[in-house]
Here is the input.
Amino acid sequence: MAKVFISYRRTDSSQIVGRIDDRLEAAFGRKNVFRDLDSIHGGANFVGKINEAINQTDVALIVIGLHWIDATDDKGNRRLDNPRDFVRLEVEAALNRDSCRTIPILVSGAHMPNDTMFPDSLKPLALRNAMSVRDDPDFRRDMERVLEEIKTPSGISLQPIAARVGNILNSPLIIAVITGLFVLVAAFLASWLPPYLQAQQQNGTATAQALVLPGSATPIGVSVALIVSPTSSATPSMTRIPASATNKPMSVILVTATVPDTPVSAEDSASTLDAQDAQTAVAAQTLTATLFTHTPTATRTPTIDTSSTVNAIRTQRVIGTHAAQLTLIAARWTRTPTPSFTPTYTATPTITPTLTPIPPTTTNVPPTPTPILPTPTATPPPAGTVRTDAAGIAQVFVPNGCFMMGSDPAKDSQARPDEQPQHKVCLTHDYWIDQYDVTNAAFDAFVKAGGYSTDAFWSSDGLAWKQSNKISGPDTTCTQYSSEPQQPRVCVSWYEAEAYAKWRTQTAKDGTNYQLPTEAEWEYAARGPQSFIYPWGDGWDSSKANVENTIGKTSLVNQYPAGKSWVGAYDMAGNVWQWTADWYDAKYNSTPQSDPPGASSGQYRVLRGGSWRSPQNYARSAYRFSLDPAGRFNSRGFRVALPFRPF
Here is the structure.
């Protein structure tokens, strides 16, 4: 009976792990399933018990949910980067035990992170074949597949055994011993076969004429050729075919048929040979690679006139047949399929404004565009027009329009359940949205203007959060991830982002109302009316976004101009997650909507865009991430919008 260990992160997947545990217990019994929640008694050494359990385990299931890879502690640091993180210790212990098969289990629509997202000690996990366990109605079927995989005997870590056998067979000593055995067998056959074959010839039976050994030491396949030889020939001899005759080493067994020497005419002999040659060709193509399993016997008994005419006919046909066979074998072994490729469509965003990127080491601020006042009644400017508001922040213009919100699995293989069904959404209002994520410089202006001490900037929930957590200013523990004035502000809660937007409203003093964008407003600004998968098109390009922990922190907000969206908004993919106004609702509405307001209440707020430490699939414009609005993390930021609609 297999013993199974379940590794998971409680904040990521505890609910579905309970169901997985129940199915495993029913299949293998409680004593054969280890789960930390109810398998470790109070006061026990957690790490010691983990190692003890894994040392007795045949299979370790590593349950990976949406937040498994980037879960953070209360200081905003990623948990997997902590060498004493319990989940990290569990996975390390499983990977370090050869006889334990480690299987990643993907839940809640999660995808397998790539190796760049793992600490070095966990990178081997990225190479393990993952299995998915989905919610109902697929849960039972998926678990049956997992149970079958666990029960498969061949699945229990055969790789280390195969590796050891391979090392033994590849050792110089073993190769020398095997080569010596071949030499001894060949010498024995050379001394024993000739007299035996001669005796068999005299008795008029079919015998092996020659055994052709390859020039290479290790034959890959065996071809068998039947060649008719005259009964008047001398004792059989060993013949070697050069390895260059084919592109792969092979063993060839040549078989002769000896018959009584009763004279017949050359014409009859030639006709008989015609029939026999046809049989020979069929036999040569159908006999499989079998070494020394049996000796083919002759199937014909007619007498042959061993005149020079028949010998000439035979010699010509034998040479031609054998050459053709070698040519056919060589052609089959050297044929290389012609490579093909499928062109990838990459859309080119039609953006008017351009901005020269600032090197990462500089602290220059983005160029200041020409101010354009927001006038809802005036003729709207073209999409992507840039203006500067009263706070000195650059914004881009997004005209009203329609797009397909969410993901279509037929078009996007990484589509998640909470992005479906894809549905038409129309925004009937124009709006401006920040061209860049809110920077440290911009947020510092809010702080200096009394942002944390002015209650008017804060909602009732925001004030309650400040008071209960004794918040009197911004989080200052994340400077290692963002410290330059033109890097995005991180470690801000949803309440702080909301207060900043209200400060921008007061600063404008023109009756306009700044706020966090809705999910629909954010997604439309990111992907446009063509509903691209990424801000720049449907094809992924790692050079256009700061993701997958490639630089280990945030980048300057204008560092990736090639990754701009259709209206010229930067970093709509990667760098930092961006808070939106909406509560998280796992189910999209499948009917067309106009100006969808999002859920009226909930537990989590929605973030969009992915971050510097996120996997590539999180950077898709339709990807939805949810988080407690009180959370302050080193990969969370925001931008604000100015919509022209009733408030």
